[in-house]
């Protein structure tokens, strides 16, 4: 029987907050309607992401708010390590049947998850190491691994997957800036110096804004390169419209922060991360229909 703290730190619901990455790559692949697409979805959202949060939760032993859980139950046993090991084993087994390249990606991802949190290495304790490992793990590596799983080794020579990887690496950096804001107390308690602690709340949101705008412009450029002009205009307009709710809420929060209000609390940032999950999911599902029907 899984303990309550184990369920808290697995954070399956946060795995689905990362669904826009899968949906975007899936929507841009040559053949989205294949068995490997479903297997990759299961691999990422039911195995890889929960395994990463499990091992992170075990070593962090957070008592304050973490992404998606306001008050997690304290970790008092080794159960999260056992769950991480089990999920990783199933992940490797499943990825072997998808593609050798995807198997290699998942193996590297598992090792990175350990290196990110383990006290002997602990990439997350270094601001630059944290930023780079997050960008690679949730951006470039995931996109390239998915590309290989969907289109074989030929994906390595396709610029579009490298371009999408760059876009999501940039976006992951912006999200990291925001998520670390309400975790400052926990980081200070562990004696770690996060990017958010160094910059402060206002500059963290400024950094998130810069990286968010950069990733938006990158994606518009991607659409311009890979779609004919009539389709580019339709898709870009739809994309900008889907970004509008998040942009409006971000401006609302940022104005409060600039006026000295404690606007960037757990609830506010969780709302800010949930909005684009919904709108970008809608956008990518619409894009699949638009492209193929």
Detailed description of the structure:
The protein has 293 residues and is an all-alpha fold. The chain has one domain. Helices cover 77% and strands 0% of the residues. It has helices at 4-10, 12-15, 19-28, 35-60, 79-98, 100-117, 127-151, 159-179, 184-189, 195-199, 201-226, 229-258, 266-292. It is globular. The protein starts with a helix and ends with a helix.
Rough outline: globular
- End-to-end Cα distance, whole Å, is 46 Å
Report the average pLDDT across residues.
89
**What is the β-strand count?**
0
The chain-level structural class is mainly alpha
What is the alpha-carbon Rg in Å?
Answer: 19 Å
Largest sheet: none
Share of β-strand residues: under 5%
Spans of at least 5 consecutive residues whose pLDDT stays below 50 are none
The number of domains: 1
Q: Specify the number of helices.
A: 13
What series of H and E elements makes up the topology?
A: HHHHHHHHHHHHH
Helix content: over 70%
Briefly summarize what is shown.
The chain is mainly α. The protein contains 13 helices and no strands. It has one domain.
Q: What are its keywords?
A:
single chain, about 290 residues, mainly alpha
Task: Note the topology.
Blueprint: H1 4-10, H2 12-15, H3 19-28, H4 35-60, H5 79-98, H6 100-117, H7 127-151, H8 159-179, H9 184-189, H10 195-199, H11 201-226, H12 229-258, H13 266-292
